[in-house]
Amino acid sequence: MAESARDFSDWLEGELRSDHAGETGAVWIYKGVLAARPQQSLRQFCERHLQTEEQHLLKMNALLPHRAHSILLPLWRIAGFMTGFLPACFGQKAVYKTIAAVETFVETHYQQQISHPALINAPDIRATLEACMQDEIDHKDEAAKLAGPSQNLFIDIWCWLVGAGSRCAVQLARRL
Questions:
Q1: Cα–Cα distance between 132 and 54 in angstroms, integer?
Q2: How far is Cα 2 from Cα 174, in angstroms, rounded to an integer?
Q3: Dihedral, CA of residue 131, residue 137, residue 141 and residue 142, to nearest 10
Q4: What is the pLDDT of residues 46-89, one digit of tens each?
Q5: Would the N or C end of the chain have less CB density within 10 A of its end CB?
Q6: Which residue ranges form the domains of the chain, and what is each CATH number?
């Protein structure tokens, strides 16, 4: 906000691009779950979390100039939708486990950014990332509690794939 696009370092612009892409994907994860018409308790969970993710996306839109958005945004929307829709076809526990896996990755991603020396001179950006990270931690903790312990190899493999996919998506979004 206080910094113009010209003042962003290449590192910071790439990181904010990955955050914008990630928040876009997060919005679409919840839209994917909701498209599967889940039962009321999961619907309420998703509607509440969707509102938070939409607020995060607005914050990222304010930080990142439109010209710097990922050219892969259509892919992030589709990937997000499928990351929500597919587990919703298998029930609440699969959705909660998926959300916990995504948010575990996101927490680590934001923490790495917040700890980076480049943000010392960007306290407004750092504060935004810290606030978003805390919301993601809250989402992770709630989803993990609702999911309960894992006793399903298929869900465990799916969650590993979600984490690996998230890591790859960040790498791509930083560049494209």
A1: 11
A2: 22
A3: 40
A4: 999 999 999 999 999 999 989 989 989 999 999 999 999 999 99
A5: N
A6: 8-175 (1.20.1260)
